[in-house]
Model the fold of this input.
Amino acid sequence: REVGRLPVPRGEGASITTARGVLCVGGIVGLYGEAATNDCFLMRWDGNAVQYDQLPHLPAPVVMPGLAVHGDTAWCTVSNAIWKLDLAAGTAWERDREIEPSEQPVLVYQQDRLHYFKGSGGPGVVLEEHLGRTVIGASAVAMGDQHILFFGGKN
Done:
């Protein structure tokens, strides 16, 4: 049974499960993917239907960003920086650190560290250095305190 629809058609954004709901950021919007967006919202189930809670916009539109969460803090890649948002406070995104930009990067939080893996964008790709290949557009999850599991993507 259908329980809800996105407010507008969208794709190529990022989403991640949080204690507050599913955080959705960026992507392209419109029936034919007319424009990139900096929109951010939480989707949550209230027992009857999906509810949408608007969050502060990212500083710029983003397509296929890296996204990670730990507790009430979310991080998202936007161009040449990682931005962070306090989900509890709901205040504006804050610039966390500079990065070398890449397409379809991976972010994963593990043991008090935020790991950034470049997707594509030239030499020095982090995964290539460690794995002997690139993984563009992969998903990742921390497995305990010593392993990160990557799945999907393209090498």
